[in-house]
Amino acid sequence: MEDKKTQLSPWGRAYGVTEFAQLYFPGHTPVIAYKRMWEWIRTSRGLKAKLEAAGWVKFQKLYTPKQVGVLIEHLGEP
C-alpha cells in the first residue's frame, strides 16, 4: 500500500492568484491571465459562491489549497 503523501495531487498547495491564472492562460501576460480568471469567477454559475464558502475574498493574493480544489472541481484541470 502506497503512502498517502506520494499520492498527493499537485494542486494540494496554495497558489498566487496570478500564478494560478497563468496555468489556465499560459500564452497570456500575467495581467491578462488574472483578468480572464476573474471573469470566469464572476460569470461562472455558482463558482464565486463556492469560493466564498471556502473563505475566498475579492482581491486576496493567494488561493488556499481548499480554494484551489474548488476551482479545479468547477473548471477542470488546467
Gist?
The chain is mainly α and 78 residues long.
Would you kindly provide a written description of the structure presented here, covering whatever features stand out?
This protein starts with 14 loop residues before the first strand and ends with a helix. It has a two-stranded antiparallel ribbon. Helix content is 51%, strand content 5%. By secondary structure, it is mainly α. The longest helix is centred in the middle third of the chain and has 14 residues, at 30-43. It has one domain. The chain has four helices and two strands; from the N terminus they run βαααβα. Helix 1 (17-24) crosses helix 2 (30-43).
Number of helical elements: 4
Average pLDDT works out at 90
Q: Compute the number of strand runs.
A: 2
- Kindly provide the radius of gyration, computed on alpha-carbon positions and rounded to a whole number of angstroms: 13 Å
* Largest sheet, spatial ordering of strands: 1-2
Helix content: 40-55%
> Shape from CA axes?
globular
Query: How far apart lie the N and C ends?
Result: 29 Å
Estimated structural class: mainly alpha
